[in-house]
């Protein structure tokens, strides 16, 4: 068995082979559904699955590696192999993918003078350490070893970030150092500047293009790049965007199904394809990324539905069935079959059982750090979610001005447990007037990291440090003396619900969902909640926000079990949920749909 990159075609056992692939991110789908998703991918007609590899998932701390549960990449590869699917693996340090910090671990920000994604010995030493754990685990699945991995990627859309060819060669060398011997490729936007900056064509590394429309025009540009370098390669769109991602406060973006099919045919008649995405999945926990903007960055929503052929919850869409008909006309497609459909139910509403203010249970679910000045979340080793900063200053007047400096991303200000203000990104630093006694008072600043940017030059910006950097000014002086509480959402079983209830402050609310039969998928209706996260049986489903456009959290059946299921809502906006409701379909806020 042999796979090669020929001059005009990919060659499988010396015969021309058209790659028909779909993107599935194992880390966005519960492991129990990997088989179903990959089966449906093949049933649509695809012969290959493509996936990124998220560094921050696999190395959450500098001295800790994770390859279990949703991080069990070898198991995902094994299921694909058993189903007869080939794999395109993208184990690059940076992935974009609308994923937190583009897949880069936030602890890298603690390393002095590090230059991310550049030929920097400090950065490359960290990549080396990561690859030493990751690549030997996947090398066994290479096609050259009797496995199913056809190709691997060196870097991702590097031409949209840098043009450091020595860096690209260093990543290539590290991959080969740890046993990678399948063909390598790069992927970039299909225009000349991006390709010239990001590809390694002079090193005989396959360049591929990323685009979602104007197939012939983009393929012409890719071919022109080959011709300019007197090279001949098969054409491939490594990311054919069949939908798009969504951000808070913006309309849901969709793409017409027939338009997608027409552009797909135009592409397949000349090239190989990877549908991005086949099934998008979910940004569970705090893993959503953020779009960089000049002033206010735009965090992405929890759903990574992407308007893909298979929806976030595993339901084939109109796109799926239209693509089935098209793909069936190409000889290298897989056999068309009926897909496996999800089972979704709306469980009866449940009443709230317990509640407690965050302030009353703070010590039991947080790690406290004391210091004279405020410290960032990264400095304290708490990279995601929330940090509460507490001070007990003394005021010598009935009113005092507060200003917060270098704070990201969103801060809520409490004066003796009374909410005074909420500031978000560009508002932070504006004056906040505190009504104070002539004496000591308690100042609490709850800061939420809403997601680091996943694309562009802001990867290197100071704004990717979360929490409070410079500090807080009272009157005209920086206040000294802070208690900092890193809220640990893996310790919610230690919440003390006997503490004080105060719905006007950020609070925890506990519910119990009792299931008599085998659990089914469902949606938690968040339309009447404010902002926060929901934890089911210890698993963080992700963020919700009544700003929309999504007003639900997808709850896969494998996170539930027969009997009693504990659900905890962390609500920060003063909304007291007396009951929790479920739905058998996703719920959206009407912000108008935007078409691609």
UniProtKB/TrEMBL annotation:
InterPro entries: B-gal_1-like (IPR026283), BetaGal1-like_ABD1 (IPR048912), BetaGal_gal-bd (IPR048913), Galactose-bd-like_sf (IPR008979), GH (IPR017853), Gly_Hdrlase_35_cat (IPR031330), Glycoside_Hdrlase_35 (IPR001944). Residues 375-487 form the Beta-galactosidase 1-like first all-beta domain. One of its GO terms (biological process) is carbohydrate metabolic process. It holds the Pfam family Glyco_hydro_35. Keywords: Glycosidase, Hydrolase. Residues 10-329 form the Glycoside hydrolase 35 catalytic domain. The keyword S-adenosyl-L-methionine does not apply. Gene3D superfamilies: Galactose-binding domain-like, Glycosidases. Residues 506-565 form the Beta-galactosidase galactose-binding domain. SUPFAM superfamilies: (Trans)glycosidases, Galactose-binding domain-like. The active site is at 157 (proton donor), 239 (nucleophile). It comes from the Bacteria. GO terms for molecular function: beta-galactosidase activity. Belongs to the glycosyl hydrolase 35 family. This is Beta-galactosidase.
